Every structure is written in C-alpha cells, then in structure tokens.
C-alpha cells in the first residue's frame, strides 16, 4: 500500500519536515508518481516487528527474578 508523505508522517508520528528529510537522505524509500512522492508502507513492517520483539525481550528480562547467590548461605 502506498501512502503520501503526509500520511507517512501521521503513520510514523513524525513531523512532516523530518519525513521529507529522511526521503531526501534516502532513509525512507519513496517514488515520485508525477505529482507527488508516495511511500510504500511495507518497508516499515519489518522495522516495527523488530521493535516489538525488542520490547518483549526487555520486558522478559525485567521480569526475570534475580537468582539467589549461592555463597550467601555458605558459612565458612
């Protein structure tokens, strides 16, 4: 699905100027259709999936209990 630059800015929750800059820097791939630039939204799916996976891993790490130190119970 193709989105306009304005729709892309809304989708990414970014300012319009920043999206335009990313297109100029080729950080976001866009195609000029004769009237305006359009952006294929599929290029963001992998990135968003990776972000969600990292969030899940961080939550899992935070919820992992700290193991008991085995030396604490040792009475030398």
UniProtKB/TrEMBL annotation:
A GO MF term: DNA binding
Keywords, in A-Z order: DNA-binding
**Pfam families reported in the protein's UniProt record:** HTH_17
* TM region positions: none
InterPro entries linked: HTH_17, SinI_DNA-bd
Establish whether keyword Cell division is in the entry. no
Where in this chain does the record put each Helix-turn-helix domain? 2-50
Work out whether the entry's keyword set contains DNA-binding: yes
The record's listing under NCBIfam families reads:
excise
The name of this protein is Excisionase family DNA-binding protein
């Amino acid at each position: 699905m193709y989105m306009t630059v304005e729709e892309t800015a809304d989708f990414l929750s970014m300012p319009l100027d920043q999206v335009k800059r990313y297109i100029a820097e080729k950080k976001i791939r866009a195609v000029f259709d004769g009237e305006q630039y359009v952006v294929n939204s599929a290029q963001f799916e992998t990135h968003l999936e990776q972000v969600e996976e990292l969030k899940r891993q961080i939550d899992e790490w935070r919820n992992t209990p700290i193991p008991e130190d085995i030396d604490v119970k040792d009475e030398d």
